[in-house]
Amino acid sequence: MKTINYILGCLMIITLLNACIDDKGNYDYSELKTVKITNVYSNWSVPLGEEYVIKPEIDYGDADSSEFAYTWVSEIQGEWSDTISHDKELHYAFKELGRYMTTFVVEHVPTGALTSTQIDLNTTSRYSTGWLILSEQNNKSVLSYIRVEQSGESNVTYNLFENIYTTLRGDDLGTGPIRMGRHFSSSSDQILVLQESGAVEINGQDFSKAITTREEFVGGAYPSGFVPKQAEYGARLEVILGTDGNVYTRVNPNGSFQICQYNTRPAFSNARIANMYYCAYLGYIYMYDELNHRMLALTDEPQAYTGMVIYPSMHPDSTHVNSFTPVDNMGNGTEVVFIDSYSVAGATGRDFIQIIKKGSDYYFQTYKAYSRSGSSNLYVFDEKEELFIGNNYVDNNSKYCIDGNSYFYFTAGNVLYCWNRLNSVEPYYTFPNGSVIVDIERYANGENREEIAVGLDNGEFYVLDVSYEAISGQKDKLLFKAEGLGRIVDLQYKYGNSSNFNKESRL
Questions:
Q1: For residue range 386-409, what is the model confidence (pLDDT) as tens digits?
Q2: What's the structural domain count of the chain?
Q3: How many CA atoms lie within 13 A of 507 on its CB side?
Q4: Phi then psi for 22, rounded to 5 degrees?
Q5: InterPro entries, per this entry (predicted)?
Q6: How many CB atoms are located within 10 Å of the residue 100 CB?
Q7: What's the whole-model pTM score?
Q8: Cβ-contact 10, 105 below 8 angstroms
Q9: N or C: less crowded end of the chain, CB within 10 Å?
Q10: Pairing relation of β-strands 407-412 and 415-419?
Q11: Can you say whether residue 135 is alpha, beta or left, with left for phi > 0 and alpha for psi between -120 and 50 degrees?
């Protein structure tokens, strides 16, 4: 409304001045100088948070162009109005999603004559997919984003938006960053940021704060002693884990955000969960109970059984090898370091990979798992366990990821290793001396993009090509590098919505 009132006032001034000019009395006046404005158009897809440029073309007639002043005024959906520029050309980054009614006013300063034109500018997000980096800089949590744009099969560009939260929102995200989590709807996503100053969900389209995790519990408060450690969001079941090993759940009936709250009663009365795992279409959220040295699961789908406890065990009708640590009794002191899975064409269920630690040694487990719909049993069979080939390299800070059933990647210090799952382990990429790899994550979208992102404790971020051509030395491995991002603590690929996640995270 402020803009409309401003324009009406301008028109009233012009009307009054014209009336004075038409007066036939003996007055001393100057001729009003108006102009003709072109090349100023409405746009329904202005990129949010990125500089938008408008270059007006102005016909000044016989007037001196130096006698004119310029004003750009913008109003967003009747809620906010501001003068955003006094330059002839508009260079401005709109930071809210919405429709901006924008008026360009040209004033002839000597006479006060005003000429204006109004346009609509509708902002849209271009932050749907890409790489996310959570880091700490100057004792503050920093969330950065890299948009990956692909044209054709080989032309890929990486555009860094450093500290995107503060850039768009104008305030600090928080302090003490720990890790991120993925949360999807059918049309968009949210980013869970776990940090010491308070966990929060971030809107994946404009990076605004959607809700604090504390507010997501019944009563708006955490259960006694709860400090969030990890969260996994299934198709229906959403689970959050505390540092005390307690798990709290909620059931999302339609895949929207913030329509239900977490229970304040733990899902298990006799368990202490150390870590959790979920992937698209898995059907359950998998976890390790370090109190009872066993794997557990909570049913995600189908709807009739959401939240039901599943007890993994060795299949009673299979022959099992003695060297395999059974999933229902892994033994005192066993630590499940890494869990992942992949699908095999034509097979039902998932093939699992786990790294477990017993004593000072690391072991590599593979097994198949099958659960009949509605059953409280998850049966494990075709198992294998061996001393991990990277046992002499890895330590408690090592990170892991898999490329289906073909390659396995792990880190030690500043080296990323690649194991072909047959026999050989090779250093895949060695990073600058003195740096330590703090996180890795793989993303693949068919054969066009096969990448691993790597974050270092010195603030460097890399995207590496892990296609067969790069592995075999036919292509350069380094695709992108950024520096000065602070102390990196976590990386994740931003899929943008549940459809992308369901399709691409399983490749």
A1: 999 999 999 999 999 998 778 999
A2: 1
A3: 16
A4: -75, -20
A5: PKD-like, Quinoprotein_ADH-like_sf
A6: 23
A7: 0.88
A8: yes
A9: N
A10: antiparallel
A11: beta
